[in-house]
Amino acid sequence: MATRGLALGGGGITGIAWETGLLLGLQDLGVDVTTADRVVGTSAGSVVGAQLTTGNALSDLFDYQVSPPKPAPLARISPLVLLGYVRAMARARADLEAFGREVGQWSAKRAAAGKLPSVEERFDAVRERLPVLEWGPGGRLHVTAVDVETGELRTFDGSDGVSLLEAVAASCAVPGVYPPVPIQGRQYVDGGVRSGSNADLVADCDRVLAFTPLDRAFGPLRSAGQLLGSTPHLVVSPDADSVKAIGKNVLDPARRAASARAGRAQAAAVAPLAREIWG
């Protein structure tokens, strides 16, 4: 039987909302992507992947996204943070793991200096987004993060004693914005440091869908399409209406509802192509 892979990429709070809306819209149109044999979640995608693989109804997840967000400090990827990324990229000299080390250790220094929220605060924020805190059955979900010391990619699937909460918090640890997450004596940052989608982790599947709120290729980073190569696949990124709904700050909860609705609306154009790939 053909195996089907789903790559859910990073994109902040609005990325979670957009992916949720897109998934529900596709399901409404008869393309049930929740049946994927393997799900790779990166950053925002790790939240959505965790929600999907633990049996939560997409309609319930969508209702949460369009509900009023709780008051919370507004985070953003500031010009200072962007400058930190640029400097790390320059020092890495097109070496992807070197970039992971540079940006990860820079983020760890910012956290140690008290410039970032605490790890406990991040656990609380991620816990609110996970209706179920246990890994789903079958080992379908693979959550990505980057080791601060080595810059290497690590995937968590529940088989190594790492909790779902720890794995998702690590995958969502945007460098310079949120602190690295300690796991088993090591520190980890956002899986998006290595790739916005890490879609190559499903490239050995027979057919793949990749939903990528931020699918960029620059320096050593590769787009989902580049990572999937000749694997039959469809990469979906926000259309013009979704981009407008998402706005300029992907970490702004106030844009959550509009992003979810835009993703759901975009499904109408995506469904015929997705159905062809998904079967």
From TrEMBL:
Keywords: Hydrolase, Lipid degradation, Lipid metabolism. The keyword Cytoplasm does not apply. A motif (GXGXXG) lies at residues 10-15. Residues 6-206 form the PNPLA domain. A motif (GXSXG) lies at residues 41-45. Pfam families: Patatin. A motif (DGA/G) lies at residues 190-192. InterPro entries: Acyl_Trfase/lysoPLipase, NTE, PNPLA_dom. It comes from the Bacteria. The keyword Lipid metabolism applies. The active site is at residues 43, 190. This is Patatin-like phospholipase family protein.
